[in-house]
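Lecture 7 notes: from sequence to structure.
We start with the chain below.
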Amino acid sequence: MSSSTIVVGIDGSEASDLAVVWAAQTASNRDCTLRIVAAVDLPSYLPEDNDVRAVFGSRLVAAETLARESIEGSALSVVTEARDGTVVDVLLSESENSALVVLGARGLGESDSGLLGSAAIALTAHASSPVVVVRGRSIDGRPPTTGPVVVGVDGSAVGQAAVAAAFDEASHRGAPLVAVHVWADVALAPMSAVPLQWDDIASSEEAVLAESLAGWQEKYPDVEVRRVVAQDRPVRVLAQLSEQASLIVVGNRGRGGFRGMLLGSTSYALIHSADCPVLVARGES
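Predicted structure tokens for the same chain:
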């Protein structure tokens, strides 16, 4: 396995089926190998040849069939493997040598409660590679393939990783890029004796976005870029844009408009609420 491999974790659920379709389409577009992985986390007392293990083999076969059917007419290199271990441990290991790790928003060994699985939260926070959580609307049983790529920009090093990933995704998809910088949580003293110069603040925030995009449009001249600077809550702006987007891209941590803890409050919220797949990029903060 190499960085030209896209890994998708499966468990036979509807959510993981959507993840397989998204991963297959992306691997085909990028001429990558698709690696379909099932984590086998069984009690140690079960024999190696037990019937439960056979279920995982059947799931892998079904997932490979689905992947190939989703890209009719295109060649796709597919490998499958059932690996012993928890979902988180297995996919964290897979992330060390992959271009992307993909998983559904629910399932992967958890009950279909409508809440994001802890596996997705752990992976987006700790994986070595970018992670895509496939969620939101579907069209004829498939994730959206049309619409812009939307990236949250905050001027941080992790934000730059998100910008890089977003331009790359937009270029491969032939999609426009919407670069969003939201400055609602800039620390402004509400009782300041000095009147706030809102025009100056807005100009400063526009400069942050321009600086973050510097050089990228020259590197990707095929990507049409739209810039959005807003005074609002980052999650609200990005979630609204996700309703028409094919992909949202954010950093796993950030600062300023995307301030948060290890995963980042905005990233955490979007993998719960976005109406399209979410790519969480990694970088040094």
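Points to note: Residues 149-281 form a domain with the Rossmann fold fold (CATH 3.40.50.12370). Residues 180 and 228 are 5 Å apart (CA to CA).
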